[in-house]
Amino acid sequence: MEPGFSVNPLSDLEALLSYPFMVNALEAGTIVAVMAALAGWLMVLRRQSFAGHTLSLMSFPGAALAALVGWPFVSGYYLFCVAGALAIAVGDGGGSRAWGAGGGRAWGAGGSGRRSRAQESAATGAVQAGALALGFVFLSVYGGVLEDLETLLFGSFVGISSGQVLTLLVVAVGVLALLAFIGRPLLMASIDEVVADARGVPVRVLSVVFLLLLGLAVAATAQITGALLVFALLVAPAAAAQQLTARIAIGLALSVAFALAVTWLGLGISYFTNWPLGFTITSLAFVVYLTARMVRR
Amino acid sequence: MLAQEFIRNALLAGSCVALASGAIGYFVVLRGQVFAGDALSHVAFTGALAAAAAGWDLRVGLFLATVAVAIGLASLGGSRGSGAARLDPAEDTTIGVLFSWVLGLGVLFLYLYSTGSAGGEGTVAARTLFGSIFGLSTAEAWAAAVVGIALVLALAVIARPLLFATLDPVVARVRGVPVRGLGLVFLVLLGLDAGEATQAVGALLLLGLLAAPAGAAQRLTANPLLGMGLSMAIALASVWAGVTLSYEIPALPPGSAIVGVAVGCYVLAALLGGRMGEGGAIPSKGVGEQTSASPTNVSPPR
Protein backbone atom coordinates (compact mmCIF):
# COMPACT_ATOMS: atom_id res chain seq x y z
CA MET A 1 0.00 0.00 0.00
CA GLU A 2 2.83 2.36 0.86
CA PRO A 3 3.71 4.09 -2.38
CA GLY A 4 7.41 4.13 -3.04
CA PHE A 5 9.08 6.91 -4.92
CA SER A 6 12.24 6.27 -6.90
CA VAL A 7 14.41 8.33 -9.20
CA ASN A 8 13.28 6.28 -12.16
CA PRO A 9 10.26 8.06 -13.65
CA LEU A 10 9.17 5.02 -15.64
CA SER A 11 8.86 2.76 -12.62
CA ASP A 12 7.09 5.55 -10.78
CA LEU A 13 4.57 5.81 -13.57
CA GLU A 14 4.13 2.08 -13.50
CA ALA A 15 3.48 2.19 -9.76
CA LEU A 16 0.99 4.97 -10.31
CA LEU A 17 -0.92 3.12 -12.97
CA SER A 18 -0.98 -0.21 -11.16
CA TYR A 19 -4.03 0.89 -9.17
CA PRO A 20 -7.33 1.06 -11.04
CA PHE A 21 -8.47 4.01 -8.93
CA MET A 22 -5.45 5.99 -10.09
CA VAL A 23 -6.20 5.13 -13.72
CA ASN A 24 -9.77 6.34 -13.28
CA ALA A 25 -8.53 9.44 -11.50
CA LEU A 26 -6.14 10.22 -14.34
CA GLU A 27 -8.82 9.71 -16.95
CA ALA A 28 -11.34 11.87 -15.09
CA GLY A 29 -8.66 14.47 -14.42
CA THR A 30 -7.79 14.63 -18.10
CA ILE A 31 -11.41 15.15 -19.16
CA VAL A 32 -11.98 17.73 -16.43
CA ALA A 33 -8.79 19.58 -17.31
CA VAL A 34 -9.67 19.87 -21.00
CA MET A 35 -13.24 20.98 -20.37
CA ALA A 36 -12.31 23.41 -17.58
CA ALA A 37 -9.45 24.91 -19.56
CA LEU A 38 -11.63 25.66 -22.60
CA ALA A 39 -14.70 26.89 -20.71
CA GLY A 40 -12.43 28.76 -18.31
CA TRP A 41 -10.67 30.53 -21.14
CA LEU A 42 -13.98 32.05 -22.18
CA MET A 43 -14.88 32.77 -18.56
CA VAL A 44 -11.63 34.67 -18.00
CA LEU A 45 -12.07 36.52 -21.28
CA ARG A 46 -15.55 37.59 -20.20
CA ARG A 47 -14.30 38.56 -16.70
CA GLN A 48 -16.84 36.26 -15.13
CA SER A 49 -14.61 34.60 -12.54
CA PHE A 50 -16.98 35.69 -9.81
CA ALA A 51 -19.91 34.04 -11.56
CA GLY A 52 -17.76 30.93 -12.11
CA HIS A 53 -16.84 30.78 -8.47
CA THR A 54 -20.45 31.25 -7.42
CA LEU A 55 -21.49 28.41 -9.72
CA SER A 56 -18.80 26.16 -8.32
CA LEU A 57 -20.17 26.74 -4.82
CA MET A 58 -23.66 25.70 -5.98
CA SER A 59 -22.58 22.11 -5.55
CA PHE A 60 -22.89 22.53 -1.80
CA PRO A 61 -26.62 23.40 -1.56
CA GLY A 62 -27.18 20.95 -4.42
CA ALA A 63 -25.66 18.07 -2.53
CA ALA A 64 -27.33 19.11 0.72
CA LEU A 65 -30.75 19.17 -0.93
CA ALA A 66 -30.13 15.82 -2.60
CA ALA A 67 -29.10 14.31 0.73
CA LEU A 68 -32.21 15.72 2.39
CA VAL A 69 -34.67 14.55 -0.24
CA GLY A 70 -32.89 11.29 -0.89
CA TRP A 71 -32.04 11.87 -4.53
CA PRO A 72 -28.70 10.93 -5.98
CA PHE A 73 -26.20 13.75 -5.36
CA VAL A 74 -25.72 14.33 -9.05
CA SER A 75 -29.27 15.54 -9.61
CA GLY A 76 -28.89 18.16 -6.87
CA TYR A 77 -25.68 19.40 -8.46
CA TYR A 78 -27.26 19.87 -11.86
CA LEU A 79 -30.40 21.42 -10.41
CA PHE A 80 -28.55 24.04 -8.38
CA CYS A 81 -25.90 24.82 -10.96
CA VAL A 82 -28.51 25.44 -13.65
CA ALA A 83 -30.74 27.39 -11.24
CA GLY A 84 -27.70 29.39 -10.12
CA ALA A 85 -26.73 30.20 -13.70
CA LEU A 86 -30.25 31.43 -14.41
CA ALA A 87 -30.34 33.47 -11.18
CA ILE A 88 -27.05 35.14 -12.02
CA ALA A 89 -28.31 35.88 -15.52
CA VAL A 90 -31.52 37.41 -14.14
CA GLY A 91 -29.53 39.36 -11.56
CA ASP A 92 -27.30 41.03 -14.10
CA GLY A 93 -30.29 41.55 -16.34
CA GLY A 94 -31.44 44.14 -13.81
CA GLY A 95 -28.89 46.54 -15.13
CA SER A 96 -29.17 45.43 -18.71
CA ARG A 97 -30.45 48.68 -20.14
CA ALA A 98 -27.56 50.71 -18.89
CA TRP A 99 -25.38 47.77 -19.73
CA GLY A 100 -26.12 47.70 -23.42
CA ALA A 101 -25.92 51.45 -23.69
CA GLY A 102 -22.70 51.94 -21.84
CA GLY A 103 -20.79 48.91 -23.02
CA GLY A 104 -20.68 47.42 -19.55
CA ARG A 105 -17.66 45.23 -20.04
CA ALA A 106 -15.65 47.56 -22.20
CA TRP A 107 -12.50 48.42 -20.33
CA GLY A 108 -12.68 52.15 -20.25
CA ALA A 109 -16.44 52.16 -20.05
CA GLY A 110 -18.16 55.26 -18.83
CA GLY A 111 -20.14 55.67 -15.66
CA SER A 112 -23.18 53.65 -16.59
CA GLY A 113 -21.12 50.58 -17.47
CA ARG A 114 -19.26 50.69 -14.22
CA ARG A 115 -22.44 51.08 -12.24
CA SER A 116 -24.33 48.21 -13.78
CA ARG A 117 -21.24 46.07 -13.31
CA ALA A 118 -21.24 46.95 -9.63
CA GLN A 119 -24.90 46.03 -9.38
CA GLU A 120 -24.24 42.84 -11.30
CA SER A 121 -21.55 41.76 -8.86
CA ALA A 122 -23.82 42.58 -5.94
CA ALA A 123 -26.51 40.42 -7.49
CA THR A 124 -24.08 37.54 -8.02
CA GLY A 125 -22.98 37.91 -4.42
CA ALA A 126 -26.57 37.78 -3.24
CA VAL A 127 -27.20 34.65 -5.32
CA GLN A 128 -24.15 32.97 -3.82
CA ALA A 129 -24.96 33.93 -0.24
CA GLY A 130 -28.59 32.95 -0.62
CA ALA A 131 -27.76 29.57 -2.10
CA LEU A 132 -25.19 28.80 0.58
CA ALA A 133 -27.61 29.85 3.29
CA LEU A 134 -30.16 27.47 1.79
CA GLY A 135 -27.52 24.77 1.76
CA PHE A 136 -26.90 25.21 5.48
CA VAL A 137 -30.60 24.98 6.15
CA PHE A 138 -30.86 21.75 4.16
CA LEU A 139 -27.86 20.37 5.98
CA SER A 140 -29.25 21.39 9.34
CA VAL A 141 -32.65 19.84 8.65
CA TYR A 142 -30.95 16.71 7.36
CA GLY A 143 -28.88 16.59 10.53
CA GLY A 144 -25.91 16.25 8.23
CA VAL A 145 -22.43 15.05 8.77
CA LEU A 146 -19.55 17.41 8.27
CA GLU A 147 -17.05 15.04 6.73
CA ASP A 148 -19.21 15.11 3.64
CA LEU A 149 -19.00 18.85 3.51
CA GLU A 150 -15.26 18.78 3.43
CA THR A 151 -15.19 16.39 0.49
CA LEU A 152 -17.83 18.47 -1.19
CA LEU A 153 -15.87 21.65 -0.99
CA PHE A 154 -12.36 20.37 -1.46
CA GLY A 155 -13.05 17.12 -3.19
CA SER A 156 -10.77 14.32 -4.17
CA PHE A 157 -10.11 12.34 -7.27
CA VAL A 158 -10.02 9.10 -5.35
CA GLY A 159 -12.94 6.75 -5.54
CA ILE A 160 -14.14 7.55 -9.02
CA SER A 161 -15.90 4.71 -10.80
CA SER A 162 -15.55 3.93 -14.51
CA GLY A 163 -19.22 4.80 -14.93
CA GLN A 164 -18.60 8.29 -13.58
CA VAL A 165 -15.74 8.74 -16.00
CA LEU A 166 -18.04 7.81 -18.88
CA THR A 167 -20.77 10.24 -17.74
CA LEU A 168 -18.19 12.95 -17.36
CA LEU A 169 -16.95 12.30 -20.87
CA VAL A 170 -20.46 12.58 -22.31
CA VAL A 171 -21.16 15.86 -20.53
CA ALA A 172 -17.77 17.25 -21.50
CA VAL A 173 -18.25 16.43 -25.16
CA GLY A 174 -21.74 17.94 -25.10
CA VAL A 175 -20.67 21.15 -23.39
CA LEU A 176 -17.65 21.60 -25.63
CA ALA A 177 -19.67 20.91 -28.78
CA LEU A 178 -22.24 23.53 -27.80
CA LEU A 179 -19.49 26.00 -26.92
CA ALA A 180 -17.90 25.41 -30.31
CA PHE A 181 -21.30 25.89 -31.95
CA ILE A 182 -21.82 29.33 -30.38
CA GLY A 183 -18.10 30.05 -30.35
CA ARG A 184 -17.86 32.74 -33.02
CA PRO A 185 -20.70 35.03 -31.91
CA LEU A 186 -19.82 34.39 -28.27
CA LEU A 187 -16.24 35.47 -28.86
CA MET A 188 -17.41 38.59 -30.60
CA ALA A 189 -19.87 39.40 -27.83
CA SER A 190 -17.17 38.79 -25.23
CA ILE A 191 -14.55 40.96 -26.86
CA ASP A 192 -16.69 43.92 -27.88
CA GLU A 193 -20.22 43.81 -26.66
CA VAL A 194 -21.29 47.12 -28.14
CA VAL A 195 -20.12 46.32 -31.65
CA ALA A 196 -21.54 42.80 -31.43
CA ASP A 197 -24.86 44.20 -30.31
CA ALA A 198 -24.88 46.68 -33.16
CA ARG A 199 -24.15 43.90 -35.64
CA GLY A 200 -27.22 42.02 -34.45
CA VAL A 201 -25.49 39.39 -32.31
CA PRO A 202 -27.93 38.31 -29.56
CA VAL A 203 -25.63 39.39 -26.76
CA ARG A 204 -28.02 38.78 -23.88
CA VAL A 205 -29.06 35.33 -25.06
CA LEU A 206 -25.44 34.30 -25.59
CA SER A 207 -24.57 35.50 -22.12
CA VAL A 208 -27.32 33.36 -20.58
CA VAL A 209 -26.39 30.33 -22.70
CA PHE A 210 -22.76 30.67 -21.72
CA LEU A 211 -23.63 30.83 -18.03
CA LEU A 212 -25.81 27.74 -18.42
CA LEU A 213 -23.03 25.81 -20.16
CA LEU A 214 -20.57 26.93 -17.50
CA GLY A 215 -23.04 25.72 -14.88
CA LEU A 216 -23.32 22.33 -16.57
CA ALA A 217 -19.56 21.98 -16.85
CA VAL A 218 -19.13 22.92 -13.22
CA ALA A 219 -21.86 20.52 -12.08
CA ALA A 220 -20.30 17.65 -13.98
CA THR A 221 -16.87 18.45 -12.60
CA ALA A 222 -17.73 19.36 -9.04
CA GLN A 223 -19.19 15.99 -8.18
CA ILE A 224 -15.74 14.55 -8.70
CA THR A 225 -13.36 17.32 -7.76
CA GLY A 226 -15.23 19.45 -5.24
CA ALA A 227 -15.96 23.14 -5.48
CA LEU A 228 -12.43 24.40 -4.94
CA LEU A 229 -10.66 22.43 -7.65
CA VAL A 230 -13.23 23.19 -10.34
CA PHE A 231 -12.68 26.84 -9.82
CA ALA A 232 -8.90 26.58 -9.68
CA LEU A 233 -8.86 24.64 -12.96
CA LEU A 234 -11.28 27.06 -14.59
CA VAL A 235 -9.42 30.22 -13.75
CA ALA A 236 -5.68 29.67 -13.36
CA PRO A 237 -4.62 27.92 -16.61
CA ALA A 238 -6.79 30.24 -18.67
CA ALA A 239 -5.48 33.30 -16.88
CA ALA A 240 -1.90 32.16 -17.45
CA ALA A 241 -2.60 31.55 -21.14
CA GLN A 242 -4.14 34.99 -21.56
CA GLN A 243 -1.12 36.57 -19.92
CA LEU A 244 1.06 35.02 -22.60
CA THR A 245 -0.93 35.45 -25.80
CA ALA A 246 -3.92 37.28 -27.20
CA ARG A 247 -4.23 34.82 -30.10
CA ILE A 248 -7.32 32.68 -29.73
CA ALA A 249 -6.12 29.29 -30.96
CA ILE A 250 -2.76 29.47 -29.21
CA GLY A 251 -4.42 30.73 -26.05
CA LEU A 252 -6.88 27.85 -25.98
CA ALA A 253 -4.12 25.32 -26.64
CA LEU A 254 -1.90 26.81 -23.94
CA SER A 255 -4.77 26.82 -21.47
CA VAL A 256 -5.46 23.13 -22.10
CA ALA A 257 -1.77 22.30 -21.88
CA PHE A 258 -1.37 24.10 -18.56
CA ALA A 259 -4.49 22.48 -17.13
CA LEU A 260 -3.36 19.00 -18.17
CA ALA A 261 0.14 19.50 -16.80
CA VAL A 262 -1.17 20.86 -13.53
CA THR A 263 -3.69 18.05 -13.10
CA TRP A 264 -1.33 15.20 -13.95
CA LEU A 265 1.53 16.57 -11.86
CA GLY A 266 -0.82 17.32 -9.00
CA LEU A 267 -2.22 13.79 -9.06
CA GLY A 268 1.29 12.34 -9.16
CA ILE A 269 2.61 14.48 -6.31
CA SER A 270 -0.44 13.81 -4.16
CA TYR A 271 -0.07 10.10 -4.77
CA PHE A 272 3.53 9.98 -3.64
CA THR A 273 3.40 12.51 -0.80
CA ASN A 274 -0.16 12.03 0.51
CA TRP A 275 -0.64 15.77 0.43
CA PRO A 276 -4.24 16.74 -0.31
CA LEU A 277 -4.96 17.15 -3.99
CA GLY A 278 -6.69 20.47 -3.39
CA PHE A 279 -3.37 21.83 -2.23
CA THR A 280 -1.07 20.39 -4.91
CA ILE A 281 -3.24 21.31 -7.89
CA THR A 282 -4.02 24.85 -6.74
CA SER A 283 -0.39 25.48 -5.86
CA LEU A 284 0.89 24.23 -9.22
CA ALA A 285 -1.74 26.32 -10.98
CA PHE A 286 -0.71 29.37 -9.01
CA VAL A 287 2.95 28.81 -9.89
CA VAL A 288 2.03 28.53 -13.58
CA TYR A 289 0.09 31.78 -13.39
CA LEU A 290 2.85 33.66 -11.59
CA THR A 291 5.43 32.38 -14.06
CA ALA A 292 3.29 33.51 -16.97
CA ARG A 293 2.93 36.94 -15.39
CA MET A 294 6.67 37.24 -14.96
CA VAL A 295 7.45 36.02 -18.46
CA ARG A 296 5.16 38.68 -19.88
CA ARG A 297 6.86 41.49 -18.02
CA MET B 1 -35.20 35.35 24.84
CA LEU B 2 -33.03 38.24 26.02
CA ALA B 3 -32.60 36.55 29.37
CA GLN B 4 -30.28 34.03 27.76
CA GLU B 5 -26.67 35.08 27.95
CA PHE B 6 -25.71 33.55 24.62
CA ILE B 7 -28.46 35.52 22.90
CA ARG B 8 -27.24 38.77 24.46
CA ASN B 9 -23.70 37.98 23.34
CA ALA B 10 -24.91 37.08 19.88
CA LEU B 11 -26.87 40.30 19.54
CA LEU B 12 -24.01 42.43 20.86
CA ALA B 13 -21.41 40.93 18.53
CA GLY B 14 -23.85 40.53 15.65
CA SER B 15 -25.03 44.14 15.79
CA CYS B 16 -21.51 45.52 15.63
CA VAL B 17 -20.53 43.10 12.89
CA ALA B 18 -23.65 44.14 10.98
CA LEU B 19 -22.91 47.84 11.31
CA ALA B 20 -19.33 47.38 10.12
CA SER B 21 -20.32 45.05 7.27
CA GLY B 22 -23.19 47.28 6.20
CA ALA B 23 -20.98 50.35 6.03
CA ILE B 24 -17.98 48.66 4.43
CA GLY B 25 -20.26 46.65 2.15
CA TYR B 26 -21.72 49.87 0.80
CA PHE B 27 -18.32 50.80 -0.58
CA VAL B 28 -17.61 47.23 -1.63
CA VAL B 29 -20.65 47.28 -3.91
CA LEU B 30 -20.08 50.84 -5.06
CA ARG B 31 -16.50 50.02 -5.98
CA GLY B 32 -17.47 46.78 -7.67
CA GLN B 33 -15.29 44.79 -5.29
CA VAL B 34 -17.79 42.14 -4.24
CA PHE B 35 -15.54 39.43 -5.62
CA ALA B 36 -12.67 40.73 -3.49
CA GLY B 37 -14.98 40.51 -0.48
CA ASP B 38 -15.88 36.98 -1.47
CA ALA B 39 -12.20 36.08 -1.77
CA LEU B 40 -11.30 37.60 1.59
CA SER B 41 -14.11 35.74 3.30
CA HIS B 42 -12.76 32.45 1.98
CA VAL B 43 -9.28 33.44 3.00
CA ALA B 44 -10.54 33.72 6.55
CA PHE B 45 -11.08 29.97 6.41
CA THR B 46 -7.43 29.35 5.57
CA GLY B 47 -6.31 31.72 8.30
CA ALA B 48 -8.37 30.02 10.96
CA LEU B 49 -7.13 26.58 9.94
CA ALA B 50 -3.53 27.76 9.87
CA ALA B 51 -3.94 29.08 13.39
CA ALA B 52 -5.55 25.82 14.44
CA ALA B 53 -2.70 23.83 12.92
CA ALA B 54 -0.17 26.02 14.72
CA GLY B 55 -2.14 25.98 17.96
CA TRP B 56 -2.80 29.72 18.08
CA ASP B 57 -5.97 31.61 18.83
CA LEU B 58 -8.22 31.32 15.77
CA ARG B 59 -8.71 35.06 15.59
CA VAL B 60 -4.99 35.70 15.17
CA GLY B 61 -5.02 33.53 12.07
CA LEU B 62 -8.24 35.04 10.78
CA PHE B 63 -7.05 38.60 10.92
CA LEU B 64 -3.48 37.92 9.80
CA ALA B 65 -4.64 36.00 6.73
CA THR B 66 -7.32 38.43 5.64
CA VAL B 67 -5.13 41.49 6.06
CA ALA B 68 -2.18 39.83 4.30
CA VAL B 69 -4.32 38.83 1.33
CA ALA B 70 -5.96 42.25 1.24
CA ILE B 71 -2.53 43.82 0.88
CA GLY B 72 -1.59 41.18 -1.68
CA LEU B 73 -4.70 41.90 -3.72
CA ALA B 74 -4.08 45.62 -3.59
CA SER B 75 -0.51 45.24 -4.82
CA LEU B 76 -1.20 42.59 -7.46
CA GLY B 77 -4.49 43.87 -8.78
CA GLY B 78 -4.24 47.61 -8.62
CA SER B 79 -0.66 47.89 -9.74
CA ARG B 80 -1.31 48.97 -13.30
CA GLY B 81 -4.70 50.59 -13.19
CA SER B 82 -4.75 54.35 -13.16
CA GLY B 83 -6.12 54.24 -9.67
CA ALA B 84 -9.45 52.92 -10.88
CA ALA B 85 -8.72 49.43 -9.67
CA ARG B 86 -12.21 48.13 -10.34
CA LEU B 87 -11.89 48.93 -14.02
CA ASP B 88 -8.69 46.96 -14.31
CA PRO B 89 -9.66 44.14 -16.64
CA ALA B 90 -7.25 41.72 -15.00
CA GLU B 91 -8.36 42.24 -11.44
CA ASP B 92 -11.21 39.77 -11.52
CA THR B 93 -8.86 37.06 -12.73
CA THR B 94 -6.08 37.95 -10.31
CA ILE B 95 -8.44 37.63 -7.38
CA GLY B 96 -9.67 34.28 -8.66
CA VAL B 97 -6.21 32.80 -9.12
CA LEU B 98 -4.83 34.15 -5.84
CA PHE B 99 -7.64 33.04 -3.61
CA SER B 100 -8.09 29.60 -5.14
CA TRP B 101 -4.48 29.03 -4.17
CA VAL B 102 -5.00 30.41 -0.68
CA LEU B 103 -7.94 28.03 -0.28
CA GLY B 104 -5.67 25.24 -1.46
CA LEU B 105 -3.31 26.22 1.36
CA GLY B 106 -6.30 25.97 3.69
CA VAL B 107 -6.83 22.39 2.58
CA LEU B 108 -3.20 21.66 3.41
CA PHE B 109 -3.58 23.16 6.88
CA LEU B 110 -6.72 21.15 7.41
CA TYR B 111 -4.78 18.05 6.45
CA LEU B 112 -1.83 18.92 8.67
CA TYR B 113 -4.13 19.74 11.54
CA SER B 114 -6.18 16.59 11.25
CA THR B 115 -3.13 14.35 10.96
CA GLY B 116 -1.18 16.24 13.62
CA SER B 117 -3.39 16.33 16.67
CA ALA B 118 -6.22 13.90 17.13
CA GLY B 119 -9.80 14.98 16.61
CA GLY B 120 -11.30 18.44 16.70
CA GLU B 121 -10.95 18.84 12.96
CA GLY B 122 -14.65 18.96 12.32
CA THR B 123 -15.28 21.63 14.93
CA VAL B 124 -12.67 24.07 13.67
CA ALA B 125 -13.73 23.67 10.06
CA ALA B 126 -17.37 23.96 11.01
CA ARG B 127 -16.83 26.96 13.28
CA THR B 128 -15.03 28.76 10.53
CA LEU B 129 -17.35 27.85 7.70
CA PHE B 130 -20.65 28.22 9.50
CA GLY B 131 -19.76 30.78 12.12
CA SER B 132 -20.88 30.32 15.66
CA ILE B 133 -22.73 33.40 16.76
CA PHE B 134 -24.48 31.43 19.50
CA GLY B 135 -21.20 30.05 20.77
CA LEU B 136 -19.45 33.32 21.53
CA SER B 137 -18.28 33.91 25.08
CA THR B 138 -18.94 37.28 26.67
CA ALA B 139 -15.31 38.28 26.24
CA GLU B 140 -15.35 37.27 22.59
CA ALA B 141 -18.57 39.17 22.00
CA TRP B 142 -17.11 42.33 23.53
CA ALA B 143 -13.93 41.95 21.49
CA ALA B 144 -16.03 41.58 18.34
CA ALA B 145 -18.06 44.64 19.31
CA VAL B 146 -14.94 46.74 19.86
CA VAL B 147 -13.45 45.71 16.52
CA GLY B 148 -16.74 46.35 14.75
CA ILE B 149 -17.13 49.86 16.18
CA ALA B 150 -13.47 50.63 15.45
CA LEU B 151 -14.01 49.58 11.82
CA VAL B 152 -17.03 51.85 11.47
CA LEU B 153 -15.08 54.77 12.95
CA ALA B 154 -12.09 54.12 10.71
CA LEU B 155 -14.35 54.03 7.68
CA ALA B 156 -16.03 57.24 8.78
CA VAL B 157 -12.63 58.95 8.83
CA ILE B 158 -11.80 58.04 5.23
CA ALA B 159 -15.39 57.99 3.92
CA ARG B 160 -15.39 61.38 2.18
CA PRO B 161 -12.17 61.06 0.18
CA LEU B 162 -12.93 57.36 -0.44
CA LEU B 163 -16.31 58.23 -1.92
CA PHE B 164 -14.69 60.83 -4.13
CA ALA B 165 -11.98 58.39 -5.21
CA THR B 166 -14.60 55.73 -5.89
CA LEU B 167 -16.97 57.82 -7.95
CA ASP B 168 -14.38 59.62 -9.96
CA PRO B 169 -10.81 58.44 -9.49
CA VAL B 170 -9.39 60.60 -12.24
CA VAL B 171 -10.69 63.91 -10.91
CA ALA B 172 -9.96 62.82 -7.34
CA ARG B 173 -6.36 62.15 -8.27
CA VAL B 174 -6.02 65.52 -9.93
CA ARG B 175 -7.38 67.15 -6.80
CA GLY B 176 -4.65 65.45 -4.76
CA VAL B 177 -6.67 62.63 -3.20
CA PRO B 178 -4.36 59.62 -2.62
CA VAL B 179 -6.52 57.25 -4.66
CA ARG B 180 -4.25 54.20 -4.48
CA GLY B 181 -3.50 54.63 -0.81
CA LEU B 182 -7.19 54.85 -0.04
CA GLY B 183 -7.83 51.72 -2.09
CA LEU B 184 -5.26 49.84 -0.04
CA VAL B 185 -6.59 51.11 3.29
CA PHE B 186 -10.09 50.19 2.23
CA LEU B 187 -9.08 46.64 1.28
CA VAL B 188 -7.38 46.24 4.67
CA LEU B 189 -10.55 47.42 6.41
CA LEU B 190 -12.48 44.93 4.29
CA GLY B 191 -10.04 42.21 5.33
CA LEU B 192 -10.46 43.08 9.01
CA ASP B 193 -14.21 43.05 8.57
CA ALA B 194 -14.03 39.65 6.89
CA GLY B 195 -12.04 38.26 9.81
CA GLU B 196 -14.48 39.82 12.22
CA ALA B 197 -17.67 38.71 10.53
CA THR B 198 -16.41 35.17 10.01
CA GLN B 199 -16.87 34.58 13.72
CA ALA B 200 -20.50 35.59 13.49
CA VAL B 201 -21.85 34.21 10.24
CA GLY B 202 -18.97 32.09 8.99
CA ALA B 203 -16.62 32.36 6.06
CA LEU B 204 -19.10 31.05 3.52
CA LEU B 205 -22.00 33.29 4.45
CA LEU B 206 -20.15 36.51 5.16
CA LEU B 207 -20.72 37.66 1.60
CA GLY B 208 -24.42 37.86 2.34
CA LEU B 209 -23.87 40.54 4.97
CA LEU B 210 -21.42 42.43 2.77
CA ALA B 211 -23.22 42.38 -0.56
CA ALA B 212 -26.93 41.99 0.08
CA PRO B 213 -27.75 44.95 2.40
CA ALA B 214 -25.49 47.27 0.43
CA GLY B 215 -26.85 46.10 -2.91
CA ALA B 216 -30.39 46.60 -1.62
CA ALA B 217 -29.58 50.09 -0.36
CA GLN B 218 -28.05 51.09 -3.68
CA ARG B 219 -31.10 49.89 -5.54
CA LEU B 220 -33.28 52.12 -3.39
CA THR B 221 -31.34 55.35 -3.10
CA ALA B 222 -28.47 57.09 -4.80
CA ASN B 223 -27.72 59.41 -1.92
CA PRO B 224 -24.43 58.12 -0.45
CA LEU B 225 -25.13 59.07 3.16
CA LEU B 226 -28.68 57.78 3.06
CA GLY B 227 -27.54 54.66 1.21
CA MET B 228 -24.85 53.87 3.74
CA GLY B 229 -27.30 54.39 6.60
CA LEU B 230 -29.86 52.19 4.88
CA SER B 231 -27.26 49.52 4.23
CA MET B 232 -26.24 49.49 7.90
CA ALA B 233 -29.89 49.44 8.97
CA ILE B 234 -30.72 46.49 6.71
CA ALA B 235 -27.67 44.58 7.94
CA LEU B 236 -28.60 45.29 11.55
CA ALA B 237 -32.21 44.28 10.99
CA SER B 238 -31.05 41.08 9.26
CA VAL B 239 -28.95 40.12 12.27
CA TRP B 240 -31.74 40.82 14.77
CA ALA B 241 -34.39 39.09 12.69
CA GLY B 242 -32.05 36.21 11.90
CA VAL B 243 -31.07 35.65 15.52
CA THR B 244 -34.72 35.75 16.58
CA LEU B 245 -35.83 33.38 13.83
CA SER B 246 -33.05 30.98 14.60
CA TYR B 247 -33.89 31.10 18.30
CA GLU B 248 -37.51 30.27 17.59
CA ILE B 249 -36.80 27.60 14.97
CA PRO B 250 -34.04 25.32 16.25
CA ALA B 251 -33.44 23.65 12.89
CA LEU B 252 -32.58 26.98 11.31
CA PRO B 253 -28.87 27.79 11.70
CA PRO B 254 -28.29 31.42 12.75
CA GLY B 255 -25.92 32.19 9.89
CA SER B 256 -28.45 30.99 7.34
CA ALA B 257 -31.26 32.93 8.98
CA ILE B 258 -29.27 36.17 9.01
CA VAL B 259 -28.12 35.84 5.43
CA GLY B 260 -31.54 34.63 4.33
CA VAL B 261 -33.17 37.79 5.68
CA ALA B 262 -30.50 39.97 4.08
CA VAL B 263 -30.89 38.30 0.69
CA GLY B 264 -34.67 38.59 1.00
CA CYS B 265 -34.24 42.35 1.52
CA TYR B 266 -32.07 42.50 -1.57
CA VAL B 267 -34.61 40.70 -3.73
CA LEU B 268 -37.38 43.00 -2.47
CA ALA B 269 -35.26 46.07 -3.13
CA ALA B 270 -34.39 44.83 -6.61
CA LEU B 271 -38.08 44.35 -7.42
CA LEU B 272 -39.01 47.74 -5.96
CA GLY B 273 -36.06 49.55 -7.48
CA GLY B 274 -36.67 47.90 -10.82
CA ARG B 275 -40.25 49.12 -10.92
CA MET B 276 -39.47 52.63 -9.78
CA GLY B 277 -36.63 52.90 -12.23
CA GLU B 278 -38.54 52.30 -15.44
CA GLY B 279 -37.00 55.30 -17.12
CA GLY B 280 -33.48 54.40 -16.02
CA ALA B 281 -32.67 52.77 -12.72
CA ILE B 282 -32.75 55.03 -9.68
CA PRO B 283 -29.15 54.43 -8.64
CA SER B 284 -27.76 55.11 -12.06
CA LYS B 285 -29.46 58.46 -12.25
CA GLY B 286 -28.12 59.66 -8.94
CA VAL B 287 -24.59 58.42 -9.31
CA GLY B 288 -24.55 59.89 -12.77
CA GLU B 289 -25.27 63.27 -11.26
CA GLN B 290 -22.49 62.79 -8.77
CA THR B 291 -19.95 62.20 -11.46
CA SER B 292 -21.34 64.25 -14.29
CA ALA B 293 -18.49 66.72 -13.95
CA SER B 294 -16.06 64.14 -15.24
CA PRO B 295 -15.16 64.13 -18.91
CA THR B 296 -14.51 60.36 -18.78
CA ASN B 297 -18.05 59.75 -17.79
CA VAL B 298 -19.88 60.64 -20.95
CA SER B 299 -21.80 57.62 -22.14
CA PRO B 300 -21.10 56.78 -25.76
CA PRO B 301 -24.14 57.33 -27.95
CA ARG B 302 -25.73 54.22 -29.32
How would you briefly describe this protein structure?
The complex is a heterodimer of chains A (297) and B (302). With 297 residues, chain A is mainly α.
Tell me about this structure.
The complex is a heterodimer of chains A (about 300) and B (about 300). Chain A has about 300 residues and is mainly alpha-helical. Helices cover about 85% and strands about 0% of the residues of chain A. Chain A has 14 helices and no strands. Chain A has helices spanning about 10-15, 20-45, 50-55, 60-70, 75-95, 95-100, 110-140, 145-155, 160-180, 185-190, 195-200, 205-245, 250-275, 275-295. The longest helix of chain A is centred in the last third of the chain and has 42 residues, at about 205-245. With about 300 residues, chain B is mainly alpha-helical. In chain B, about 80% of the residues lie in helices and about 0% in strands. The longest helix of chain B is centred in the middle third of the chain and has 30 residues, at about 140-165. Chain B is globular, with a radius of gyration of 19 Å. Chain B starts with a helix and ends in an 11-residue tail after the last helix. The model of chain B is unreliable at about 80-85 and about 275-300 (pLDDT under 50). The chains are: A mainly alpha (about 300), B mainly alpha (about 300). Chains A and B meet through helix 3, helix 6, helix 7, helix 8 and helix 12 of A and helix 2, helix 4, helix 5, helix 9 and helix 11 of B.
Extract low-pLDDT stretches of chain A.
Answer: 94-114
Mean pLDDT across residues of chain B: 77
What is the helix fraction of residues of chain B, given as a range? Answer: over 70%
**Unreliable stretches of chain B, pLDDT < 50, 5 or more residues?**
79-87, 275-302
The counted number of beta strands of chain B is 0
Multimeric state: heterodimer
The DSSP helix count of chain B reads 12
